[in-house]
Design goal:
Strand content: 15-25%
Shape: elongated
Largest sheet: 11 strands, mixed
Helix content: 25-40%
Distance between the termini: 22 Å
CATH topology of the largest domain: Transposase Inhibitor Protein From Tn5, Chain A, domain 1
CATH superfamily of the largest domain: Transposase Inhibitor Protein From Tn5, Chain A, domain 1
Radius of gyration: 23 Å
CATH architecture of the largest domain: Alpha-Beta Complex
Order of helices and strands: HHHHHEEEHEHEEEEEEEHHHHHH
Number of helices: 13
Amino acid sequence: MNASITLWEKWHAQVKEMVPGVHGHQKKTLALCVLGIVLSQSAVLQRMAEEIALRGISEAKMPSIERRFARFVANERVQVSKIWKQFLTQVLAYWKGKPVQLVLDCTAFDDRAIIVYLGLVVHSRVLPVAWRIMPAQEHWEQGQWELVGELMDEVSLHLEPTDCTLVADRGLAGSPLVKLCRDRRWHYLLRVCKEHTCRRWMAGCWTPWCAFQHIIRNQGQHWFGRVLRGLDEQTIETWVSAVWDPGHKQAWILISDQPAGRRRVQEYALRMRVESTFQDDKSRGWDLEASMTRDFGRLNRLLPARTLVALGYSASGSHRCRPRPLFTVPEVAGWMALRFAFLKCVRERGVWEEAPACTYLASRAVSAPPRAKSRWPRCSTRLAHWS
């Protein structure tokens, strides 16, 4: 049996169940886009269409499939917010009531656009769960903090009640972000510049104002404690974890509403995983910029398929979302793609960690991959639970 066709039948059926309010042709094309990205290892429409045609998944010829993809991303009637909301309702259900870390960051899409991401820390990646595409060279019609507030509201709708911690770098840290977190009862962990000033609580009183760069001067130094923080002409009382570990070029000055300590430093270090996520979209990964998408609306309609690919690889137990040379073998690519059965697994059982076992059982319908077991993530040991 052709592994790719088996995958297509199962994946198409899942998408139809998960987005019932979407037009049938839109659901089918979205499912085909996701499968095309997995099999072609690229987000370029031409490569996706070529791989779909070569695998015999569609009876149409490659130019026809490419035009279908192009019409989908150009169709203004495709409501990305509606589609993605239905996916989040099922995918984020597992984290309800559990502590989660959300990273707020942005990345450039060539020199024309900036994609603002709000992502969930899972394994070695930050998986985008909400985003906005904004112009890089033009004035934003929507305020920055209004935009961030909308992203937080979209996610909090599916996570309440959940212990959420928002992590952000210096470029996005400010008193408006602290206020947004407090209004939604989220914790915050933000890195601030060393030039900013504070008053430390020491010996039962507040010290005079001084810059953080005068507190941490050399490598190997650290200080943890309460401070009065001057932030955008406002003063807030918060906790500061200031460390300059040996071998690092700069000190980390972290503010949080939770007690200071090494634990805050370890939590903030997880933010660095967003760089791997951004690399997945570049030429080292799915090469999203090579799609030559000029219109922001078309790019926004392509991002859900790309994000579903990342969610599929993560939930399947593969910590490497980037395509690897091993996937060039057709049988392996088809077997690997069956991991998208995780969506059905999460929807029906609400279990994320055991999804690899579910997809392992689903893979029995096709031929096993070649002998390279050490390069494949191990499945869950609790296979009996799924059989």
